[in-house]
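User: Predict the full complex structure for these chains.
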Amino acid sequence: MSKQTQSLVPLPLPDNVTQVHAQLLQWYEAEQRNLPWRTTSDPYAILVSEIMLQQTQVDRVLPKYQQFLAAFPTLADLAKAPTAEVISVWVPLGYNTRAVRLQSIARQVIAEYNGRIPDTIDELLKLKGIGRYTAGAIACFAYHKQVATVDTNIRRVLHRIFLGLEVGSRQTEQPINDAQMLLLAEQVLPEGEAYNWNQALMDLGATICTSNNPECTRCPLQNTCQAYTEMSQYSLFPSGTVFRQLKKVAEKKSSYQSQPFTSTNRYFRGRIIDLLRTLSIGQRMPLAELGPRIKTEYSTDDAAWLQQIVTGLARDGLLDYTEEGVRLP
DNA sequence: AAGTCGGGGCC
DNA sequence: GGCCCAGACTT
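Assistant: Here is the predicted structure of the three-chain assembly.
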């Protein structure tokens, strides 16, 4: 049996799952965060929120979510807008290709789905920019499908509740893979409560069961949580120190950053987009002018370097590059 | 499996 | 300063 096949064998269903359902759903009913994408039934608005929330914290998304929907109130508005405008509104959320892909999704839905965002995971996965998490989130949160989905919060919370500490425990010396975690999420999905359950897991992960500094004393699942039980057994008092120490033991640290961020391609890509969004519509900037504007002590020796970055941005659909210069697409 | 892609907030 | 974040895509 291959390792991959073996790893997909379902784990035994935890015996505390019914109690966990009741505790977490009750906690969510009382303590849930008031988030605007939870009070809309517009699949488009939920799509916008889910793309924005990829690798971006809720507090940073909140204002931009409102601004974006004010600028592009409907899917059709987004589809027909100039891409340059979409990219400009997106700043400074980061991962700017998300803006290009979001508009691409809107245009594809208009052209191929009669303007209705798909409601199944399989169809959603066909749209570039929507992976398994976002597909599940849209199916569940926009259409109330009873599906499991796994993001970084849900992965951490489910692991701690049902499997124990992510690192350092005897039971789970290696973190389980994505497919295994999705299977677990599907096994413990409470009947008919997918929406509240998935939202509740993310709320708990974002506010109490955080990565490095969980507040177990405030947790509604303290008496049923496997990780909390392990910490008690090992006489580890739940604290940020414990989790940071465990992570260090696991040698998970990706080691040294060979260069400062302000000398990375990432940094200069951001600088270029931020500069181009200040130009008037259609205006191009020659590379010879762009270089000194984004890099101090820019010299002609940097021309090849700059062209490489610009080519990469053009390939990602983030700018329009000709002999005359560059501009947003 | 490992790299790439942003940027702001928090410790 | 390092780590974190409602991930997805490419190689």
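The first helix of chain A runs from residue 3 to 7.
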